[in-house]
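Running co-folding for NQM.
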Amino acid sequence: MIPDFGGGMKMIRSKAMRDGRDYVMPEMQRSIPFMQFRGGSSKGLYFRACDLPAEQDRKDRVLLAAMCGNGPADRRQIDGLGGADPLTSKVAVVQTSARPGADLDYEFIQVVVGAAATDRTQNCGNILAGVVPFAIEAGLLKAAAGETTARVYMQNSGSICEVIVRTPDGRMEYAGEARIDGVPGAAAPVVCNYMDIAGSACGALLPTGRLIDEFAGVPVTCIDNGMPVVLIRAADLGRTGYETPAQLNADAELKARLEAIRIPAGAAMRLGDVTGKVVPKMCLIAPPRQGGVIHTRTFIPHVCHAAIGVLGAVSVATACVMPGTLADGLAQLPAPGEPFSVEHPEGEFSITLEIDYSGALPEVKRAGLLRTARLLSRGEVLIPAGIW
Ligand code: NQM
């Protein structure tokens, strides 16, 4: 059963000794119903929009309190439910959609680790994998018998993803045989078909208007097919692209060079001053070595991803099909109809691209991929009442 999704105030009473006598110290906390899901290779808190304040500043204060606690920036997020890592410091806010052609609206919020700040510039395809299961569990969406298909409107990017989950007897099924790299074991498949995601945050697939740019003396390809990404050949920075994330995370010189590229690249990609933002992602590319299309190491943007983000991988795969990008020449394209396998530190990420070759440049009309998700916990998160 789902928890009581009513929310509300709770009086938590504690005893304190003062002047040798017992006093009851009232401390007001507010409870908010939530669920926690692993979505793909990320993890986050999922809320119904109706259980949060409608006004954005207040909503952000509430979410920061739930994730990080009630105080200044804390890398450990010790006073909240956040996982102290960019991949586990994520929030989904879901509601039934009033838009034609959509069943659910999904707002993604990245809680910036160590900054006590939220960022909505990017979307998240991993957390999206938990949205339909959450909507079914929380009573926002009625499951069909056997399989449920829902069209999710992604508020951050203004685009649609069609999601298909298994619902035998009209209930979410989590157990299954699907495996995705970066997640141990197997689970029921969550099929995600992204439509028309070009220019999700930047307004154009090639936001600088060019296939190759140069920033801080380094050639790059800036692309946004669902996620703003700056592609750089690892060799151009004196790296192989096969280093482990731990090695790259310890590489202060590389990180400084990436940031020196990222700031002007972000401005050229129409993202403004990206100093405190989580986009664009910085992706080192190298020739494939596991039978895939290309090999990657992605900084999101200051920590090297253990694998690769969903829409980050779609943007990289898209650059691979476009002649004249930095991936052109490195990428080994699959046979027609075969998936694009984007290699990453923990394995690979397969994407099926539907491509229209009729224009001057190939155009990706649809990106299909497989994720899994699992409900991990549900209940009430408590925040100091004064914050609401
Ligand atoms: O690219 C990490 C993740 C992500 C985002 C990141 C994601 C995506 O692994 O769609 O999934 O790039 O910040 O969850």
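Result summary
The chain has a mean pLDDT of 93.
The chain has two domains: 10-195+373-387, 213-356.
Job closed.
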